[in-house]
Amino acid sequence: MNAAAASTTRRAWRVALTGGIASGKTTVSKMFGALGVPLIDADVIAREVVAPGTTLLQRIFERFGFDLRQPDGGLDRTALRNRVFANADERRELEGLVQPAIRARSEELAAGVAGPYLLYVIPLLAETHAASQFDRVLVVDCPESLQLQRLQARDGCDLQQAQAILATQSSRSDRLSIANDVILNDGTATSLESEVLSLHDRYLILARASERDVYAQ
After folding, report:
1. How far apart are CA 58 and CA 62, in angstroms?
2. What residues does 118 pair with on adjacent strands?
3. Are 134 and 16 in contact (CB under 8 A)?
4. For residues 40 and 120, is the Cβ–Cβ distance under 8 A?
5. How far apart are CA 192 and CA 126, in angstroms?
6. pLDDT tens digit string along 157-207?
7. What are the two backbone dihedrals, phi and then psi, of residue 72, each rounded to the nearest 5 degrees?
8. Is 58 exposed, middle or buried (0-12, 13-18, 19+ CB in 10 A)?
9. Given this model, what pLDDT does residue 2 score?
């Protein structure tokens, strides 16, 4: 394959970053971003696709109730989260509305950025069974007891509420089962930065090797 043909068929090498709630995904993704890695964050996109005035937000109001509309026209995300956490069928229905929009917007963003590799931050990667769409899966992990502590401190919820939130997500073992790489986030910021830098160097090598493979075909 010549260079011109390869440039039209090759997509950027993709790493999916995932982990349970309060595991440290945001912290780790910011560290990669500081190294110049383009980030595509599903949580950020999830807010964008339900911004005031969007068709998707209107559909959510129609399905789950106009009492979720805030005075500025936006979505009361906390109220919606509390509602769907208590009802698995409604949670799946909400995901069925939102996830396709997130995926479509993610692809739009990916087409507009350049870099040796892209990092997709996807909290629900295990739940949506999308790991096969990526070249590498990185799981940010920590003991469940530490998750519960962090979640209570972050969101001001009690232990029972924190446990209920964790129960709606895939298990720790399920997330680890799809991992190519794991960062155990139970230590210092310095050790975390060291792990990120080491993985970044490894991903650069793998991404460049993948690119050479494409040009060699």
Report:
1. 6
2. 14
3. yes
4. yes
5. 23
6. 999 989 988 998 999 999 999 999 999 999 999 999 999 999 999 999 999
7. -85, 5
8. middle
9. 45
Buried b (16+ CB within 10 A) or exposed e, 22-48: bbbbbebbebbeebebbbbbbeebbee
Supply the pTM of this predicted model.
0.87
Q: Give the type of residue at 210.
A: S
Average pLDDT for the chain: 91
The CATH class of the 1-38+117-217 domain is: alpha beta
- Total residue length of the chain: 217
Transcribe 190-216 into DSSP letters: HHHHHHHHHHHHHHHHHHHHHHHHHHH
Q: Which residues 6+ apart lie within 8 Å of 105 measured at CB?
A: 45, 48, 49
Contact assessment for residue 185 and residue 23, using Cβ atoms and an 8 Å cutoff: yes
Instruction: Give the integer Cα–Cα distance in Å for 182 and 185.
Output: 9
The pair of three-digit structure tokens given for residue 94, joined into one six-digit string: 């909400």
120 touches 17 (CB < 8 A): yes
Inter-residue contact 121 to 39 (CB < 8 Å): yes
Q: Which amino acid is at 161?
A: Q
Q: Where are the domains of the chain?
A: 1-38+117-217, 45-112
Q: Which residues pair with 40 in a beta bridge?
A: 120
| Dihedral pair phi/psi, residue 139, rounded to 5° | -105, 125
